[in-house]
Amino acid sequence: MSGIAMPKPSDAVLARRREIVAALSEIVPGEGVIDADTEMRAYETDGLTAYRQLPLVVVLPETVDQVSRILRYCYENDVKVVPRGAGTSLSGGALPLADGVLLSMMKFNQVLEIDYENRAVVVQPGVTNLGITRAVEEEGFYYAPDPSSQIACSIGGNIAENSGGVHCLKYGLTTNNVLGLQMVLMTGEVIRIGGKHLDSEGYDMLALMTGSEGLLGVVTEVTVRILQSPETARAVLIGFPSSEDSGKCVADIIGAGIIPGGMEMMDKPAIHAAEDFVHAGYPREAEALLIVELDGPEAEVDHLLSRIEEIAKANKAETIRVSNSEEERMTFWAGRKAAFPAVGRISPDYLCMDGTIPRKELPKVLAGMRALSEKHGLRVANVFHAGDGNLHPLILYDANKPGELEAAEAFGADILKLCVEVGGVLTGEHGVGIEKRDLMGEMFSEDDLKQQQRVKCAFDEKHLLNPGKVFPTLHRCAELGRMHVHKGKLPFPDIPRF
Questions:
Q1: Residue 165 pLDDT more than 70?
Q2: Which residues form a coiled coil (predicted)?
Q3: Which of 71, 80, 296, 325 could be bridged to 100 by S-S, CB 3.0 to 4.6 A?
Q4: How far apart are the first and last CA of the chain?
C-alpha cells in the first residue's frame, strides 16, 4: 500500500468471517455473495490501481430491501461496508477493506422512468452515465455531465464524487443536474430526498449527499435532469506555442463573457499520445491545444466562433481548425475522451491527479508543474477542464522500478499543495478518497475537519460506512469537539489514527 495507511483490520471481525458470509448469503441468495479469493480479485482495487486489497466478502444485492437488510446486519454486528459502483474512482474511494463488506451496486442497472414533460429521468445507481443519454437521445435530449469515463462510470459513483466532465463549465457538475435520491442509511432506514420539483424543502440534503464519497449512505435510486440537445454544436481546435499562451487564452475567453459548452486543454505529451491512439488530427507541433465547443442557435454559435478566433490569434495561436460536420466535431472530442487510456500506452503506470485552481493562475501552475517534474524526475502529461480550472495532471511512472511510486505520490502531493497555495482546492471531481486524505490538513484546520466529521456522525455514528477515506484522523463521535492535547499528551490513545 506504499505510503497510504488504512485502518487496522479488526481481528474480531476477521474471526467471524464464515458467520458473516453465511448471514449475507441468507439475505442475498444464489450468486449474490462472492467470498473466494480468486473471484474477489476483480474487486481488489478501483481506478487508483496503485493500491490493492481484497475485501472480507463481496455482496451484490438486487433490491432495496436487500440493501437495507445488509446494512442493518452490518450495523448491528459492527461490520464495515464499502459501497462500490463501476469501480472507476481515481481517488481510491472504492478501495476495499480487509475486514469490510464490499457492497457492489451494479445489479441496480435499470432505467425506471423517462418523464419528458418534467425533463427528468429516474434510474438505478448502476446505470452508466452515458446510458442515461442513450435512453433519451432519440427524442432529442441528453444528460449533461460527461466524465471521460462516461461509457463505464455509474451514476451512483458520479453522485459519490460529484463528477463533472467536458460540459460542466456551462451546464454544471452532477450536483447541478441531480433532482432527487432514494438512499439507505447505515441503520437500514430507507429515505427519500428531493424529487422532480425544482426546489428543496428544509435543509438541502441533496447537495450534502452529492460528493459525500459513500460516507453517509448508499444510493439506490436517482432522479436526474435532462436537457434538450442544442440546435447547433461546433468545436474548434486551437494550437499554441506554449501552455502559458493557451492558459491566457482561456482566461480571455471567459473574461469576454463567453461561456463555451466545453473548453479542454492538453499539453504536448498528451497531444501526441492522443493523436497516436485516435488520429483525431491534432497539431503535433503545438505545445498546448485547446478544444473549445460552442452550442446553441446557429447564428449565435457562428458569431461566438469568430470572437474566439480573434481572442486566440491575440494569444499567439498557431493553428485554428473549426469543425464543419458532426462527425468532425466528434472526432475532435474522441482524442480528448481517450486521453487517459492513450497515456497508458506510453507509460507502464500513471497517477491521475485532480486539483482545481482559479483560471487566472493556469500559467503559473503549469510552470510550477514543469519545475516539479524536474524535481521529482518524472514526466507529466496535462489533460484538464480548462474552463473551470479543473486540472488532471497524469504523472508517469513505472511501479516495477523501486522508488518510482513513492516519487509519483510525492510529485502528486506537491501539485495539490500548489493548487491550494494559489487559491484552489484539493479536488474538482475525483473526490478525496485515500489519495488526498492525508493532504486535507493543507486546506482545512482541525476545527474545519471536526465540523465536517460531525456531519458524518449524524448519519453513521459507528464509522462503518467507507472508513479510512476522506478524514486523515478518526475521532469517535462522542468525543468530537472535546479532545485536547494537554502538555503534549493525547487523550484516548486507543482511538485508531491513520
A1: yes
A2: none
A3: 80
A4: 13
pLDDT tens readout for residues 209-261: 999 999 999 999 999 999 999 999 999 999 999 988 998 999 899 999 999 99
Main-chain dihedrals φ then ψ at residue 306, nearest 5 degrees: -65, -35
For 373-397, what is the mean pLDDT?
A: 93
Per-residue pLDDT, 148: 87
CA pair distance 181, 173, nearest whole angstrom:
16
Q: Which grid coordinates belong to 350? A: 500513471
482 pLDDT above the threshold of 70:
no
The type of residue at 458 is A
Nine cell digits for residue 249: 487564452
What is the topology classification, in CATH, of domain 11-104? 3.30.43
Exposed e or buried b per residue across 387-419, where buried means at least 16 C-beta atoms within 10 angstroms of its C-beta: bbbbbbbbbbbeeeeeebbebbbbbbbbbbebb
Q: What is the largest CA-CA distance in the chain?
A: 71
List the grid coordinates of 137: 437521445
C-alpha cell at 92: 481510491
Q: Where in the chain is the domain with CATH 3.30.70.2740?
A: 347-435
The reported pLDDT for the residue numbered 496 is: 58
Q: Is the pLDDT of residue 481 over 60?
A: no
Q: Which CATH class is domain 232-341?
A: alpha beta
Instruction: Extract the C-alpha cell encoding 460.
Output: 453513521
What pLDDT shows up at residue 477? Answer: 86
Q: Which residue intervals of the chain bear CATH 3.30.43.10?
A: 11-104
Q: Boundaries of CATH 3.30.70.2190 in the chain?
A: 232-341
Residue 117 has pLDDT above 60, yes or no: yes
Fold adopted by 111-228: 3.30.465
**Angle between helix 268-278 and helix 326-337 axes, rounded to 10 deg:** 120
Nearest alpha carbon to residue 265 among 281, 249, 285? 249
Q: What mean pLDDT, rounded, does the chain reach?
A: 93
CA 213 to chain centre: 9
Q: Give the span between the Cα atoms of 204 and 181, in whole angstroms.
A: 12
Read off the C-alpha cell for 21.
458470509
- pLDDT for 488: 57
Place of cell 474477489: 40
CATH class of 347-435: alpha beta
492: cell is: 484516548
- The boundaries of every CATH 3.30.465.10 domain in the chain are 111-228
- d(Cα 105, Cα 103) in Å, to the nearest integer? 6
Per-residue pLDDT of 234-248, as tens digits, reads: 999 999 999 889 989
- The CA-based angle 61-158-175, given to 5 degrees, is 125
State residue 489's pLDDT score.
61
Top-confidence residue, 6 or 372: 372
292 half-sphere exposure, CB direction, 13 A CA radius: 30
